[in-house]
Amino acid sequence: MLILASGSPRRRELLASAGVDCTVLRVDIDETPSAGELPTDYIARMVSAKAKAAVQALQSDPSLLKISETAEDTQIVLTADTIGVLPDGRSVLIKPEDKADAFAMWQQMSGVNHQIWTAVQATQVKKAADDTITVTNTVNILEKTDVQFVALDDAMMERYWQSGEPQDKAGGYAIQGGAAAWVARIDGSYTNVVGLPLAQTLTLLQQLGHQV
Ligand SMILES: Cc1cn([C@H]2C[C@H](O)[C@@H](COP(=O)(O)OP(=O)(O)OP(=O)(O)O)O2)c(=O)[nH]c1=O
């Protein structure tokens, strides 16, 4: 069975909607961007740090890995990271720290286009007889979706902040929730915005020989 190393319920639900069962392993990493770090570098660092943390957790508790110790028996650990990117191509939007941070992000997205990027990493691991976990293959994809927001006023932003939904979402919004009314159009994968580009992820899993 697939190990989804993500605390995001959206990712698990998307995989379940495609009939993919997974075991959830929560990993906690520092998601602070470095000064001047470009979106491509930041998102690659995040998705790989989440995978490293997951492999470490498996190493501490190898019983989480439901595979035998034969060389052919491997398991896939899936990690993902979702960010917003402003039209300057440099500004990364992650989860808002507080209300002021959310408002500042939304003001920059009001009435214009931004992009949502999700990076997905499939890390194939195997277990040796002494319970050592080794990574046998790593494959990454990066999917980008253009999103255009309507013009937002203070009352719309205030109402949405009070809903409690923005707090744990990249860019401080959920297209699958209250912010659906803010989205004039998108160009690209919808599920990518929700946190996991489903069709592309299934292709990735198939490439690694995982039955989907
Ligand atoms: C833009 C957008 C983001 N999101 C979510 C997807 C991700 O869960 C979250 C971005 O944060 P992430 O750090 O990508 O994911 P996470 O912290 O929820 O889970 P983990 O790190 O354990 O994998 O924002 C939506 O649900 N809807 C949206 O429209």
UniProtKB/TrEMBL annotation:
Keyword match Hydrolase: yes
Residues under site feature: Important for substrate specificity: 10, 82, 176
Main localization category: cytoplasm
Signal peptide start and end residues: none
EC numbers for this chain: 3.6.1.9
Catalytic residue positions: 81 (proton acceptor)
Location(s), subcellular: Cytoplasm
Keyword annotations of the record: Cytoplasm, Hydrolase, Nucleotide metabolism
Cofactor: a divalent metal cation
Domain of life: Bacteria
SUPFAM superfamilies in UniProt: ITPase-like
NCBIfam families attached to this UniProt entry: maf
Reported function: Nucleoside triphosphate pyrophosphatase that hydrolyzes dTTP and UTP. May have a dual role in cell division arrest and in preventing the incorporation of modified nucleotides into cellular nucleic acids.
Family according to the record: Belongs to the Maf family. YhdE subfamily.
Entry-linked PANTHER family: BIFUNCTIONAL DTTP/UTP PYROPHOSPHATASE/METHYLTRANSFERASE PROTEIN-RELATED, BIFUNCTIONAL DTTP_UTP PYROPHOSPHATASE_METHYLTRANSFERASE PROTEIN-RELATED
Protein name per Swiss-Prot or TrEMBL: dTTP/UTP pyrophosphatase
Organism encoding this protein: Psychrobacter aestuarii
